[in-house]
């Protein structure tokens, strides 16, 4: 016997297909080419179906950003599930962090943030998602580091993430795995004393 889906279930399914499509199109073609037509073609839906769920393209993009911000927290937990903070796991942790930074979700997020720089309406609408993203990221990092989440640790993580974000952008255009791995090992050596000092002073 086939169970009929409710209207809410059908709506949720359609919304998910549209948001999935936005991520694929942004990832493969960039923000500028993420048109309503391109998203609908990727989702296999009509433009009428899109506008029944989102009043305009910007609302669809903001909804995508909100979902990506939420997913980043889940991805963080997944990447770091087997890693424990300490002097012997710094390289392992940085490797997991680099994987997260290079994920499609994070790349889509940065495409949207960069677009908001020159789009006033998008920047205003994206503000709550951006604040939520930072709140979720900070909470996930604090939960992972526990009592090691000191001010110094936060500063170091901020510097490392900023570097990895830049590295990820360059790697998409001019990949060099040996260079990136060597830099990651250097970052591990530079940040390891932070965790060693913490353990010695406990």
Mean pLDDT: 88
Our estimate of the beta-strand percent is: under 5%
Distance between the termini: 62 Å
What would you call the structural class? mainly alpha
| Shape annotation | elongated
Question: What is the H/E string?
Answer: HHHHHHHHH
Rg (CA only): 20 Å
The biggest beta sheet reads: none
Please report the total strand number as a whole number: 0
Task: Please bin the fraction of helical residues.
Answer: over 70%
Query: Count of helices?
Result: 9
Work out the count of structural domains: 2
Stretches where pLDDT is under 50 for at least 5 consecutive residues are 198-202
Features:
single chain, 202 residues, mainly alpha, Arc Repressor Mutant, subunit A, 9 helices, 0% strand, disordered C terminus
Describe the structure.
This protein is 79% helix and 0% strand. With 202 residues, the protein is mainly α. It has two domains: 1-54, Arc Repressor Mutant, subunit A (Orthogonal Bundle); 62-201. Helix 4 (57-79) crosses helix 6.
Summarize the structure.
With 202 residues, the chain is mainly α. 79% of the residues lie in helices and 0% in strands. The chain contains nine helices and no strands.
What layout of secondary structure does this protein have?
Blueprint (H helix, E strand, L loop, with lengths): L6 H23 L6 H8 L3 H7 L3 H23 L10 H12 L2 H13 L3 H26 L5 H23 L3 H25 L1
Helix pairs in contact: 1-2, 1-4, 1-6, 4-5, 4-6, 4-7, 5-9, 8-9
